[in-house]
Structure formats: C-alpha cells, structure tokens
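Notebook, p. 212. Picked up where the previous page left off. The plan for this session was modest: take the two constructs that came back from the sequencing core last week, fold each one, and keep the raw output in the notebook itself so nobody has to go hunting through shared drives later. Recording the first one now, exactly as returned: residue sequence, then the structure token string.
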Amino acid sequence: MEMILTNSDRLEISYLDIASYIDIDVGNTNDFEISLSREDVSRYDIKKGCCIFAPGTEFGGIIEDVQSNTEDAEITFTGYAWRGLLNHMVIEPPSGQGYLTVSGDANRVLGKVLNKGTGLLFEVPDSISGINIPKYQFRYTPALEGLTAMLEKPKARLDIQAVQGDAGEPFKLLIRAVKIKNYSEDVEYNGDNQIGVSVRDFGAGINHLICLGKGELAERTVVHLYVQLDGSIGKKQYYTGTDERTAVYDYSSAENAEVLESEGKKRLKELMNYKSATANTSKTDLAIGDIVSARDRDTGVSLSRPVVNKIYTYQNGTETLECKLKGEQ
C-alpha cells in the first residue's frame, strides 16, 4: 500500500517507506502510530499537524502527538485516524431546539451535518447517493456514531477516501454514503491462498441477567432478562439448569423500569455468547460495514458478518492488513 506523508498544509513531502513502523487502526481505536528516524524527522520537518494518507483508502490521519527520548534513535508520532476525528465532532441541535432533524438524500445530509469544526476536513460530493433518509434526529451525538446509526436502516455506510491533489495541490478527504456490499456468497476466508483466519465460538457467556434499579431491598426495581436460542433477548427463560449462566447488573440510577431494561439489554449483549473472526488479507477494497464470510473447516465454525475493524501495519519492510468481523453478541 502506498503511504504518503504531508506537511501541515496537506501537501505531499515524502512516501512513508522511510518509516520503520506504521500501525493504523480503523473501526476500533481509530488511531495511528508511526516511528521515524531522527534524521528523517529533521530532514522533512515532521511535526504536529502533518498528515499521513494512503490514496484511495481511509488509512491516514493527522499527527497530534509527538513522543521522543534522547536515548532513542527514533521518534514516535501518533494521532486519530479520520474516523477518530469524526468521533470527536459532536452533532448539536440548533439553538432553542431539542434535536437536529434531517431528511433527504444521504449525501445532502452529510453536507449539512459536516459544516463546522472537524467536519470541515471532509468534502462531500455534489452527486446524490440514491440513499434516502426519511427522517433522522441528532442530539449531542458524536458524528461517527450518529451518521453510522443513521445509515444503518437503509443498509448503507460511510465511505471515506483520501484523494491525491494535482501538483502543488493538497490532498482531499472525501466522504459519502454508499450501499453496503454483501460479499458473503462470493468471498469466504477459510485459510486457503495463504490467508490466515482466526475464528472464535465463545459459548461461556451470560444468558440470564438480573438488572437492579432504584429502591431498597424488597422495594428495589428488578428486571430479569434472558438470552433466547436465536440470540435475541427476552423475558422468558430459555437456558435452564446446568446451561444457565447468571450475572447481576446494578444500575441504581435508572429512572424507571423501561430505562433499566433498555440498558440491561445493552449490558447483556456484551456478556452473552458470540462468534468472531479475524482474517489477514491483502484485499484492501473491503470496507467497514461490508459483509463477508469466514470459516474454519476443522472446527466447523463459520459466520457471515460485517467488517468492523481494519488494521494496517508496516514493519521492517513487510505490510499486513487484518480485517475483523463483528462478533455475534
């Protein structure tokens, strides 16, 4: 993958093959780390505000932290990836209103929302996406979280790409809404073709959560939640006897039973059984939100899930790209 270093004006100054180490996480921590020799740092005047990017991808970000030790031959630079920056922009309601309400073509909505602060880094294309948002409301929501949730129902996702500028021009950071691609029938990661696959079928999770709300002793609000056979959560117990796994969720500040139940479901989803998969692949066009399949023939574990995390690393001249699928939880 071609990785480029720019100055604070986003003008290219060097390819990042000068780095000894690069690690970029997209979808989880949404940050990056690079290590460069002191000589190269001085030669290219690398400092906070400089950027890194891989053309045609969303791997990149702005350097915001510099770490050095006079005894070390290298200096480490870190910062947020583009999604990380989005997650530190809050979508606020207009003054005097409870919510920012949007509707219409998804690209038009993106253009309306990303019109200040961090959002000004991103350019939204003039073309329509063909994805309609009938109505959606934001209230002090991190932009990444809110926009991702907005696009979930129409089965769409955010597409972020850095595009090289012409000679003497800065690179552009484009963002748009696109339909999620389902590769599950065409692309299966199963260990063939030297693609390493790691799968996990975790079956020791909690299937009964006792949620404790307001009140004291016998007056305390109690809600019992149970995992069903299909992985959904309800109030009727399915797993009993030696199959039951129980935990307590203490949320004494819950305003009422409805809030307690809602938050309890979120907690149980974190604790229940799940399946997950990781594949080391060079297929860079897989995007966060696209759906693929992974399978281990020997264990029989297979799953079809969205890509939720992509990690690019470069060390000692070797590149790796790791894709992680959403766990069943």
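Okay, moving on. Second construct, recorded in the same format:
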Amino acid sequence: MKVRLTYAHFEVKGSTDNYLVAYDDEEGWYCNCPDRHYRKHECKHIRETKHSLKRGLVVDEVIPETQTTLVV
C-alpha cells in the first residue's frame, strides 16, 4: 500500500528548543528554527523528520485534528 503525504505537522525536539516542522503538498517543508529562517535551506530538523518518516514513524503523542508530535 502506498501513502501520499498531503499535510503533516510535527514538533521536533532540537538541541536548544522545540521546533515546528510542517509539510504540505503545495508549499513543501517548513521549519520555524532560526537556521531555516535566515539561511533559507533545508535544516537538520527537516532532514531528521524526513529520515524518521522513512524509517518508520515513532509517535510520542498524537494530537487531535490530524496533528502529530514527533520527538526525534
């Protein structure tokens, strides 16, 4: 079975803070960390979220309204 990701919302535990990582099929990946904001490139939080999704999602807590918390 194939699954197509159209929207996802994750909270990623960073080294200094927790960050919002989101994906939608129109805008692509987003992270609210300073690195992504200032340098405009794919940050380590997005890369780790993608990696976690590929190896099998480990969910710490599921929030209603199709939002998922992912602790990596």
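Notes on construct two before I forget. The CA atoms of residues 11 and 44 lie 13 Å apart.
Flagging for discussion at group meeting.
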